[in-house]
Amino acid sequence: MEKQQNDLDLDLDRDRQYCELCGKMENLLKCGRCRSSFYCSKEHQKQDWKKHKLICKEADNKAALLPKHKPGPSPEDKQAAREDAREPKSPEPAPQTGGNTEAPAAGDRAAEAGPNNSPATPNGQSSTLSPQRLATECIVPCMNRHGICVVDSFLGSESGLSVLENVKALYRTGRFTDGQLVSQKSDSTKDIRGDKITWIEGKEAGCEKIQFLMGRMDDIIRHCNGKLGNYSINGRTKAMVACYPGNGTGYVRHVDNPNGDGRCVTCIYYLNKDWNAKEHGGLLRIFPEGKAQFADIEPKFDRLLLFWSDRRNPHEVQPAYATRYAITVWYFDADERARAKEKYLTGAGEKGVKVELGKSSDPS
Q: How many C-beta atoms surround the C-beta of residue 232 within 10 A?
């Protein structure tokens, strides 16, 4: 029993490990000073040091362990402490622990999926509900309990196909570009994410149905507002239309909003007809914080997925072997967004991690 508890603790510790700067969760290094924070590279550790040194606990921990009769620090020790305050110690490789190998049974799934893998509407009949009933009777209780909610048949087949035609037409124009990371642009980006994206406001020519979808999303969130956690939602990003070309590309495990940029709810609409996860891959796998299970979401046609955008929901897009389309919108909490804007405008944000206000670049 004790060994099982230790194994569970290790799994939970692993799920709480993120790069403090960009949120990446693979190949992490542990801070050699406090040994409780993680970074994906030495460069990100250095960039985050100005903020991290305020909470780095090594000095406090050492002081607590010192005998009361021990004499004060020597001049050499004082000099070393001053140097420590200026520079972080080199990170050490983070411990790697095994994860889940299969999704839990439907009854244990983090979002309590029903027969159609739809925790919000177990029979997959959401299109028969008004936006207000769908929001208040399904989405609000599901999100507040699980932090994840799936709604099938969101627009209905006819409207869903119209949105898909808009997206395919957009893709044919060549407007899609390689997805970038919020924190950096580097040659390693393609190793982290392999999608192509474009940002849509909704008023562009040929995007009328995408605008209709965004309006329906807004309706749902408006009816949820004031009931989703402690959030007060007052805005959103543009729609990010994403395509994984089907050549085995995906997106490594990450967090949409690891640094308080204001995004509180991630809202994704999938457009993939006849999707077969066993053949096509492309699952969105969510690792809810504090839970031993993960939730696998198939990117099925006319499916809407909502989840908390912060560190409670690390997730990854597994390699896709067929063309995979999705439209993502992020909704903002008023207070957190105001703080993020103030930090941005005053220059308090660390160089390299500022996000362009009004949009983001983390797909799912």
A: 15
Flag whether the pTM goes above 0.85. no
Query: CA separation (Å) from 159 to 129, 155, 210, 338?
Result: 16, 6, 10, 35
CA dist., res. 159 & res. 146, Å (int): 29
Q: Are residues 132 and 316 in contact, defined by beta-carbon separation less than 8 angstroms? A: no
The DSSP string of 227-255 is SSTT--EEEEPPEEEEEE-SSSEEEEEE-
Q: What angle (nearest 5°) sits at the alpha carbon of residue 265, between those of residues 262 and 268?
A: 130
Domains of the chain and CATH, by start: 18-62 (no CATH), 131-181+189-348 (2.60.120.620)
| Cα–Cα distance, 223 to 119 (Å, whole number) | 19
Distance between first and last Cα of the chain = 37
Question: What pLDDT, in 10s, does the model give residues 166-225?
Answer: 999 999 999 898 866 555 444 455 567 778 999 999 999 999 999 999 999 999 999 999
According to DSSP, the residues that pair with 199 across neighbouring strands are 240
- Helix/strand/coil for 207: coil
Give the SS3 label for residue 165: helix
Query: Which residue's entry shows tokens 């457009």?
Result: 271
In the Cβ-directed half-sphere of 18, how many Cα atoms lie within 13 Å? 23
CB atoms closer than 10 angstroms to residue 235: 12
The tokens 């997730």 sit on which residue? 315
- Quote the CA–CA distance of 337 and 156 in Å, as a whole number: 33
